[in-house]
Amino acid sequence: MTTSIGRALAVTAAIALALGLAACGPDALPEPSAEPAPETPVAVLNDEQLQRILGSVSETLVAADAASAADQLEGRVSGPARTMREAEYALAAATGGANTVTPLATDAQVAIVAATSEWPRLANVVTTIPEGTNLPLLITLVQDNARANYQLWSWVRLLPGVQLPATVNPTIGSPVIAADSDALRTTPALTLERYADVLGKGDGSEFAAEFAADVFRTKLRETFTALSTGVSQAGTAEQTATVRDAGVQSLGTNDGGAIVVGAIDQTLTIKRTVADTTLEVGGGLTYGGDAQVKGTLTATYVITVAFHVPPAGSDQPTQVLGAEQVLTGVTRDDSTSPD
Question: Which of 26, 100, 329, 334 gives 20 to 30 Å between its CA and that of 85?
Fold first, then answer.
């Protein structure tokens, strides 16, 4: 598919220029006048503008990725996306390139553009499938104020089989939904908070039934269960998940619900508790260091998630549309060794 964003309406101001200032006093100068703002907010971006923004974001990512230089992301990558990309550069360096950055695409298949006269302004874009992967991305672009660039704020990998809810034609634009809006089954902020509880506690969370089953949550739980079993002879594994202090970005859908995007901090703690035992980790958890855990190893992650939250009064569960998990760091505390 291709985007179909029409050109935004232009509001023009007619300003008369006074000629012969020597003959006319200040009182003779006409006052500037502007046409009234439209009663209904219009789409904040047209197709040409969006394509230009996506091109600039792509150029920034290509240059920063080639140099593994986080400072080159400045001005076009912000929020959780900035944290995640910087973490990927650090992990690639720590592992001698064994871990690589996530392939990102910015070519648009579908665009969902905000209709608002205020800031921040945002747009969601479903991209083509990045090279070397098998699923498209949902990327969120945010402009913080009138003088700022639109920046890549987050990306998620759409889950297999997921269909995005219908949204308003992007030439018209979709309403921005506030983080505390009670027009949804749960507010955007509360949705993120409750899903974090579900990720941390699994089916033991009191909010588990509010969310439809999703592949990301299932795989995360399976991975943690396997890890817990694997270390049980020598120690323990615990995980927690809390809302990241980055806010949420929400655009309305045709059913009265919203696409809500936010970020979650996850912490995994592996602790050796049995003396005279060996406990080893693999993959990114070594972070380029020793595979053996002498005391405590703590790994931190950022998880970005996109939801479809149904409208208030709906009996439908909230659906996870996509997610992405990036390892942001590993620390060790050998002083907790049981030996």
Answer: 334
On whether residue 139 sits in a domain, the answer given is yes
Q: How many CB atoms lie within 10 A of CB 31?
A: 6
**Within-domain flag for 31:** no
Please report whether residue 170 resides in a domain.
yes
Residue 190: closest CA among 176, 203, 177: 177
The dihedral built from the CA positions of residue 297, 300, 305 and 310, taken in this order, carries a sign that is positive
Whether residue 35 lies inside any domain: the answer is no
Secondary structure of residue 24 in the 3-state scheme: coil
Q: Please spell the DSSP secondary structure of 264-309, one letter per residue.
A: EEEEEEEEE-STT---B--GGGGTTS-SB-SSEEEEEEEEEEEEEE
Report the amino acid identity of residue 22.
A
Please, where are the H alpha helices in 12-46?
A: none
Residue 147, domain extent: 41-336
CA pseudo-torsion sign 151, 259, 257, 188: negative
Look up residue 179 and give its amino acid. A
pTM (global) more than 0.85:
yes
Q: What string of DSSP letters covers 170-219? A: TTT-B-B--TT-TTBSS-HHHHHHHHHHHHHHGGGSTTGGGB---HHHHH
Given a contact cutoff of 8 angstroms between Cβ atoms, the answer to whether 217 and 171 are in contact is no
The answer to whether the CB of 255 falls within 8 A of the CB of 165 is: yes
pLDDT in tens, 24-79: 444 445 555 555 555 688 999 999 999 999 999 999 999 999 999 999 999 999 99
For residue 140, what are the β-bridge partners? 124, 154
Reported as a single tens digit per residue, the pLDDT across 155-164 is 999 999 999 9
The alpha carbons of the chain give a radius of gyration, in whole angstroms, of: 24
Give the whole-angstrom CA distance, residue 158 versus residue 160: 7
Geometric angle at alpha carbon 13, from 31 and 169, rounded to 5°: 150
Total count of domains within the chain: 1
**Residue tagged 């950022």 (tokens):** 302
